[in-house]
Prior knowledge:
With 237 residues, the protein is mostly helical. It starts with 11 loop residues before the first helix and ends with a helix. The chain is elongated, with a radius of gyration of 27 Å. It folds into two domains: 12-187, Intergrase catalytic core (hpI Integrase, Chain A, Orthogonal Bundle), CATH 1.10.443; 189-237. The longest helix is centred in the last third of the chain and has 47 residues, at 190-236. The protein contains ten helices and three strands. It is 59% helix and 4% strand. Strands 1-2-3 form a three-stranded antiparallel beta sheet.
Amino acid sequence: MPRKRLPVVLSEEEQETLIDAINTSTANGLRTRAMVAAMLGAGLRVSEVVNLMPSDIDFKRGEVRVNRGKGDRDRVVPVDGETLAWLRSWAEKREALGLKGRQPFFPRLRSKAMATERIKPGAKMGTRNVEAIIERLATRAGIDKRVSPHSLRHTYATGQLDRGVNIRELQELLGHSAISTTAVYLRVNPEALREKIQKTGKSVRDDKLAELVGEIAVQQENLAMLARQVEELKEET
């Protein structure tokens, strides 16, 4: 039986580095930032990113609806405020660009390559387009991992477990038909484990040091008290 590999997961520092590499002052950059938010903040598959429509996002409730995800399953994913803010920023920008509600939420934008291929702005992106964007972004950020849209989904999943979401809840959020598929995220992440152990070790050492310092202070006080008593006895004699 072939050995299953652990999914590639980005650390918090790597996530920040990846995000910092995005120039959100341009339309393409803002779209990229919102796509990253959809994958890191909502766990969307790359196919779900390209199929997302404006009507699938409920800004009032803070939810993203995935229609006909893998296995033809629908699901609703609640998202945090930061994720929702980036999706809203892109929604406002795409409206300013004249994009309509019936066009994909993350459409193709004007570029030289599109002009050559005679593709109009607003057309649906291909999954390979998104994969290439994430790969270039990771290279620009200097991340020494093979980063893909699925890596961002993996990162979302492990992050939810760290926040206390249980495996059944995560199964629903990811849209998995079988719990065994979700269970891969329960496997140990060596880097995260190393960090936890080292932080815990440092905490234990710090606590022990504080305890020893406290004991020394008590002993010093006891010695001072004995010294005073000796002096008092000398004076009496």
